[in-house]
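Changelog note: in this version the structure field was regenerated for every chain. One regenerated record is shown below for reference.
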Amino acid sequence: MKKVTIPEPTDYSNKVYELDYKEVIYNIIENGSAKKVRGHETISLFGLHYEIDFKYMKGRFPLITGRKMFPKNFIAEFLWIMGGGTHIQDLQENEVHIWDDWADHMGYLGPIYGYQLRMFNGENCDQLEYIKTLLEKEPTSRRMIMTMWNPLQLKKMALPPCHHTIQFNVNSNKYLDIMVMQRSADVMVGLPYDIALYSVMMEVFSSMFSYSPGKLIFSIGDAHIYDNHWEGMETYLKTLLYEPPYLEFNEKYFMKDFNDDSRKYMPCNIPFEEIKLTKYKHGPHINFKIAK
């Protein structure tokens, strides 16, 4: 691996979450080791921690600003997973093609994220409904966990889930915390979108259950940077950061008085076009090739 020049510190006030993301990159550069996986050269570090405290976001949304991100990708994917989606057509309707390369000739991806979430192992097991019930009736529970890792169906999945287990916590009867366990993170391509996806979850679930957003915590197994991402990574590390944007959505679509059937009281009811990022300023588009 080539050496990378780390820029001198600058003013990162109100941008701590992105500074911490850059620190993840620096940590891998400085302490990671070379690893070859499925024919790809990487530098990898096992056991990383990344955390955002929404109490200090001042109502803003923690989207990466040093490079251009595409909000429609993580907004559509969030709604798709929450709704139990397994076909790329549901994403393509919103001009999102992030799963196209993994789908079969019919457009199916097998029993991946949303399938396990809403119908684990093909059973009548709706984990989202389970979490909703606990958040409503037993918010002090330590069992508010949903998982998308199903060893019985891994071979049927187009891709085993990277972010696989989510635990919820209500802190001081006021703040909602979410911890995400992740087996693998492509730090330059996938991780910024994973952070954004679960930040949408944080905002939506907090609003649904009348809590304030608390901490979003990622516990990452193998965090890696691909060899062919090195040039783009160096470009990103030198870019300026901007004030983070705002996330806006209409709460009526998951309010109880809007739905006759309480089982429809779910975040996936929000139409795609009614979740928006506003005041998003960003750096250049940096093209990173996705490794399959």
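Spot check on this record: The chain has a mean pLDDT of 91. The beta strands are 33-37, 40-53, 145-147, 163-171, 175-186, 212-226, 246-249, 275-278.
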